[in-house]
């Protein structure tokens, strides 16, 4: 578990640095759709939550770590300068994804398996 | 006693939000950010250079189709520039003599701090530069390029780093005037690297391509800094003012070195 968390910290740290220093030179990462820039950390956290095992806490940990690095290296998109903004937003997204998966997706998959 | 899970989640949320509020109110979050910027700046510089080189390479490949056409256009442009260059050289000579006579060098008017960009956050129209409190920077200072093009102003200052709010940021607003038209308006950021000039009196005639410079009104920026070119003019019979989109003179992708005006 500790090893996984360490890997996650390094992964998100490098992703944050790449997003603000490397990918900025490529036009696909500039305002691409409706004034929203592509945010790799956001996408990674959502993907981790979607594909992790049902009872794992890895999604919550990834939202905390990812949110922390976004708070450091990125300004919030609604012009509020509040450290912890992205941690809260990503945690809420994680809770929402887990709720949807638990209530509506996993029961259907289970039923499909039985049938 | 076993606590219900909804109570646990609520308790954790309250504790987490309280922790962040304390962190923001005490200013400790700035210390944390400064620490991370400090340890990350060498890596960011390396990534920056690599990204710059790679994007140049891919851009060259993608544009190879248009090279012939572009080459012909450039040749024509060179001829025009050569003619302009000769005229400018004469003007430069005259200007130098006048400057010497009046003693109005740029360095005398502005106290400058040179800084390097180490990160850009396009989603919020901000830039991170490698100069901060230790270099005498304070929030609100104007940031320009070497060609006197206005980029923005300092919005946040850390010990060794500062955040620059680009003029296209939604919170950015300052007085600007259209050169040779005596028309003054308010330049406002639109987000997404776009900005527009608002409240231009209707009776003033403006054209696409007109140059927008900063005005001394408001005291936010010194007078005469280049902002951009008028692109799209919106006039309405009902509105007492006209509006125009401004195309900024700086290219966000090419910005590397910036000057911060400490005194003007």
Task: List the keywords.
heterodimer; A: 115 residues; mainly alpha; 69% helix; B: 264 residues; alpha+beta; Thrombin, subunit H; 2 domains; six-stranded antiparallel beta barrel; 12 strands; 37% helix; globular
**Rg over CA atoms of chain B:** 23 Å
Largest sheet of chain B: 6 strands, antiparallel, barrel
CATH level 1 name of the largest domain in chain B: Mainly Beta
DSSP strand content of chain A: under 5%
Describe what you observe in this structure:
The complex is a heterodimer of chains A (115) and B (264). Helices cover 69% and strands 0% of the residues of chain A. Chain A has 115 residues and is mainly alpha-helical. Helices cover 37% and strands 31% of the residues of chain B. Chain B has a six-stranded antiparallel barrel. A six-stranded antiparallel beta barrel of chain B has the order 6-7-8-11-10-9. Chain B starts with a helix and ends with a strand. The relative contact order of chain B is 0.12. Chains A and B meet through helix 1, helix 3 and helix 4 of A and helix 1, helix 2 and strand 1 of B.
Map the helices and strands.
The complex is a heterodimer of chains A (115) and B (264).
Chain A: H1 2-22, H2 40-51, H3 58-73, H4 85-114
Helix pairs in contact in A: 1-3, 2-3, 2-4, 3-4
Chain B: H1 5-26, H2 28-62, H3 67-102, H4 106-109, E1 111-121, E2 126-129, E3 142-144, E4 150-157, E5 162-166, E6 173-178, E7 183-191, E8 194-201, E9 211-214, E10 226-234, E11 241-248, E12 257-263
Antiparallel strand pairs in B: 1-2, 1-12, 2-5, 3-4, 3-12, 4-5, 6-7, 6-9, 7-8, 8-11, 9-10, 10-11
Task: Put the structure in a nutshell.
The complex is a heterodimer of chains A (115) and B (264). Chain A is mainly alpha-helical. Chain A contains 4 helices and no strands.
